[in-house]
Design brief:
The structure is a homodimer. By secondary structure, chain A is an alpha+beta fold. The first copy, chain A, has 5 helices and 3 strands; from the N terminus they run H-H-E-H-H-E-E-H. Chain A has one domain: Arc Repressor Mutant, subunit A. In chain A, about 45% of the residues lie in helices and about 10% in strands. Chain A has a 3-stranded antiparallel sheet with strand order 1-3-2.
Chain lengths: ~120, ~120
Amino acid sequence: MTATIGDPAPDQGQDQGRDETVCVPLAGPALPLDEARRRAELLKVVADPVRLQLLSLILGAPGQESCVCDMTAQVDVSQPTVSHHLKQLVEAGLLERERRGSWAWFHLRPERLEEIRAALP
Amino acid sequence: MTATIGDPAPDQGQDQGRDETVCVPLAGPALPLDEARRRAELLKVVADPVRLQLLSLILGAPGQESCVCDMTAQVDVSQPTVSHHLKQLVEAGLLERERRGSWAWFHLRPERLEEIRAALP
């Protein structure tokens, strides 16, 4: 039998003999772009050294909650910088903020951390 | 018994009655800064929509490997952009690159993905 134009090439295995002029997708479809963007935004929240330090403090504290004053004492950045990062963690839904007397307290929302874990490939 | 200076305050629970003028750290120490930076760099690698899409293609492909031509066909960015992101994934140790004929193939290093998983709080 003679191959005619349009016949598939004989299967030679994908590691060798692949037709280098034609590329037939073997994989796919990709993660939809909207979902990829959503996951990337979640992962960006924890892709910061100061936010990782603040989360480590809260995760290690009794009841998984900590006061902004406690945290400022433990990291090598200013209190406004700590507050800035805590605000980002609250906006991302990872922490909840509560006023107690003069101080702001923050507690972890572990279900949100699980969502971030699920956003990894 | 009369409290003297230096006596610890009676335990009133951490949710109420906390001395608002003095802040004694309850948590800590924080994750060391060097380690926090290392983890943040790992997480930044996957905190990008296109890189998440490329990883989804490779994870879903036979043998967890894919050709750059396959991947370009499946995402909505140009081939140079795909190559740029693949290079970043290689530099981060998440992918290994191999030349086969005219095409570059990429396969996953799952142990590196596990390191990224462990970098999460």
